[in-house]
Amino acid sequence: MAEEISDIIDQIDEETSLYVELDELEDNPSLVPFWLKAKQIFATLIRSIQVMFETHKKEVEDLIDQTEAGLIDWYHQKCLEYQHGDSLVIQNNRPVYNEINEDLKIIQRAALSETEDVSGYVTLQVRVVKDDAGVYVPLTDTELSSFSAYLTRQKIAGTKLNIQSEPADVLNLTANIELDPTIYNEDGQLILDPSIEPVLVTINQHLRDFDFGGTFYISRLIDKIMDIEGVNDFDITFKTLNDVSFTNKVESPAGHIALDPESTLNYVLL
After folding, report:
1. Of 9, 41, 124, 184, which has fewest CB within 10 angstroms of its CB?
2. Domain 72-164's class?
3. Pick from 175, 171, 269, 168: which is nearest to 222 by CA?
4. What gap in Å lies between CA 217 and CA 223, rounded to an integer?
């Protein structure tokens, strides 16, 4: 931050006091007016230079912020910025939208990773979904084609892309849940509001919230269920993802998971 002129003048006085040959500037009445005016001019010039450097520094930092580094986080942000049906224009050698329109943004979640083939060639794997009434669903063929064209224009030259938008992987559960009978009925619904089945709601919300494209941990689901008021026990006796059993954790090929409606939740009031 540029200094105040008074502070710069104080620094000039501090420096000149170190040289006895300059004492006359302060002591000689005929030189004092000149010296006061000179210090004011020097201080103003110094501050102007400081302001110029600050302005230049900000311009450089702004350019750095706009640099397309091509990192995973940058690609992730570009996925979320996609506006379906909108055209790109070139500004400062970058493809951008003329106007940001939140209503046209359809990519709700995105997951990106790099894979390397036997020859050492790296491919950027991109998985995306949109939201349909609170449920993650794949893009339509038209949406996926348009999004792929958009990301191809955004990508760093030479980057190989593999873009996918798949239906959710299916989690099938069989579980026994012990509930407080003062809060729940035999169907696992709240006595005060039978339209709400908290365990089922929590399972679906956890599947929606879990790290898109990440690893699904069954222990984290159990923790979420056990945090529900009135749930005394949650014992999973059977579980599969896409009809394949797993133990403690599993990778989601599609990047997102939905509960199989054929899952069995056995409620016991104790």
Report:
1. 41
2. alpha beta
3. 175
4. 10
Domain boundaries, the chain: 5-66, 72-164, 169-269
For residues 209 and 267, give the distance between their C-alpha atoms in angstroms, rounded to a whole number.
24
pLDDT at 101 over 70: yes
Residue 177's pLDDT is: 98
- Residue 87 and residue 83: Cα distance in Å, rounded? 8
Mean pLDDT of the chain: 91
Instruction: Assign 67 a pLDDT band (cuts: 50, 70, 90).
Output: low
Smallest CA-to-CA distance from 249 within 218, 209, 213, 211 is with 218
Q: Which residues pair with 178 in a beta bridge?
A: 233, 268
Least confident of 68-72, 194-198, 205-209, 248-252: 68-72
Burial of 208 from C-beta contacts in 10 A (0-12 / 13-18 / 19+):
middle
Read off the pTM. 0.70
Nearest-angstrom CA–CA distance, 109 and 213: 9
